[in-house]
Each structure stands twice: as C-alpha cells, then as structure tokens.
User: Fold this.
Amino acid sequence: MNYGGLSGVPTSWSLTSQRVITPLTLEHEFGLHKGNIFHGALQLHQLGYTRPQARTPLDGLYLCGAGAHPGGGVMGTPGKNAAQVIVWDLAKKERK
Assistant:
C-alpha cells in the first residue's frame, strides 16, 4: 500500500469537502448551550457528583449523555452508569 509520505493515510483517499465547526455552529445547529460539547462547564462546581446522576425523578427516564455524571470528558462512562442503574432498577421491580 502506498502512503505517499502521509502518516497512515493511503494516497487513494481524497478529501471531498471540509467544514469548520465553531461553538457558535454547535449552538445554532445542534442546540448545545454556548456550543459546549460537555453540556456544562468543566469547573469545580460542575464536576463529579455535582453533575446530574443517571436516575431522574421521572420513572423510566435516565440520563446517559455528557451532561450526566461524571461528564463528557470521560468517554462512555455516563452511558455505563445509566445502564448499571437501569439494571438495578429492573432487578428491584422483579423482586417486588
């Protein structure tokens, strides 16, 4: 395979388009508040257990995105946390 001096990219691949996405783009097109992909500032008062937990007061509604504990900078963990809570809740319902 000929890489043409490029690091790990075959020369047969070519760019067909490009796009710059700014925080303003993220806010307008995707509804992210202030274009923040982490759903809140990664500051001390919004880190760890101060972020919303997976279980909500609404039965059957769970949070699994970047806005949930521990935040979007820990890839996949909010989803894992939500899945774990769902399994616990389903097990509790079966015991009743």
The mean pLDDT is 83. The chain is about 30% helix and 0% strand.
